[in-house]
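Submission checklist for the structure archive. All mandatory fields must be present; incomplete records are returned to the submitter.

[x] Identifier: Lacal_2735 family protein
[x] Organism: Halomonas korlensis
[x] Residue count: 55
[x] Sequence attached
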Amino acid sequence: MGLFNRDPAKKLQKEYERKLEQAMMAARNGDMRANATLTEQANTLLAEIEKLKPS
């Protein structure tokens, strides 16, 4: 990996954590539809992160 190349897994991890936070806030506010949508998006990101991990 070069000096200026970023780890794509780190970027996805931050986005994943942000989506989970948004989902939690939606649930607290009673918006279960938004919670479900955000949780689904977070799970999609998690699947992408898993693909990037070395076996």
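[x] Structure attached
Curator remark: The CA atoms of residues 12 and 45 lie 6 Å apart. DSSP finds two helices and no strands in the chain.
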